[in-house]
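Field guide to reading this record: the first block holds the primary sequence, the second block holds the structure written as discrete tokens, and the final block holds curator observations. Each block starts with its own label. This record concerns 14-3-3 domain-containing protein, catalogued under organism Blepharisma stoltei.

BLOCK 1 — SEQUENCE
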Amino acid sequence: MTQPKFYEIKMEKLIFQAKLAESAERYENMFCFVKGIMKEAEVLDKEIRNLITVAFTNLVRQRISEWRVIVGIEMKELSLGRTEKAYILRIYRENAEGYITSICMEVLGFVEDWIQKQNQIEVKVFLLKLKEKAFRNLAEFQSHELNIWIYGTDSRDKQLRAEEEAFRLTTQELSPIDPIRLGLALSLAVISYDINGDSKKALSIAEEAFNLALPELINIPEENYKDVTLIMSMLRDNITLWSNDLSD
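BLOCK 2 — STRUCTURE
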């Protein structure tokens, strides 16, 4: 009887611990186990990718929520001229920002380590989306009026570039009705509108994706039908919104 390899035993234990932490909603612990998985993994299969996404998304969401509360109170104290209290809140805020930065930089380091050795389109797109998400979270506080003079728009720009790179990759490799490609088209269009206020570019991306997919709808695999029709509906709604913006 073949004995399981040490690697397999170690990975099985890490995955079990990560899932246990997820069940208990202990996302800081989950992220620690996921870092171990990322370090040891030989391939990024769907299960591992899901664990990475859940751990990173939920941990950062918690910290961003805390940051929003702190910065809201700080802005209020500044508006009332209570500088001493505002200074205390600034220290809290900067600690929160430092923590968010450390999480995002760890994820970005992981992306750089993995992306060059990937051949699978699905994994490459996952890594680029992870990169986009990390820069989006950094931009959340770096582009705030209290910080923009320090950081500028660097994280926002890198967020957009990561999304554009992922979308470009899908247009080269995937069908127009692939939910990954359609989802990225929607995401890139929304980012173009929200970040740059560029209705024209957002509309162009959305219309092209919608029009390319429309003739192919009869060929949607059954397992993708729900996702594709939902994304197409969202594209259509945004096309209407952005068309109205441009006509005003």
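BLOCK 3 — OBSERVATIONS
Residues 139 and 155 are 5 Å apart (CA to CA).
The chain has a mean pLDDT of 91.
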